[in-house]
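Researcher: Next sequence.
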Amino acid sequence: MSDLRDKLGDHAFRYYDLWHTIKNNWQDSIVMSIAIILFLFSLFFFLSNDRPKEKMYDCSISEISPDYPIEVKEACRKIRTEQLSQKQ
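Model: Next structure:
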């Protein structure tokens, strides 16, 4: 090996050595790659899956917010009138 290191030089020998390590351990590399891909996929799935299914709106700002849909504004008005009629 030191003969080869002298011929190639230190920098080239490192790449040569790395290539032979990968070449000899390609099955381990494939298994590790699959494990990393599965881990990232499961991480993405679990982190994206716990989002709430229903959207919550704050009715106290429904009249002044341009981002609220008209249906939500009407539902908030209905809730407010029901609350006011129950107080009386």
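Model: The chain has two domains: 2-49, 52-88. The chain is about 75% helix and 0% strand.
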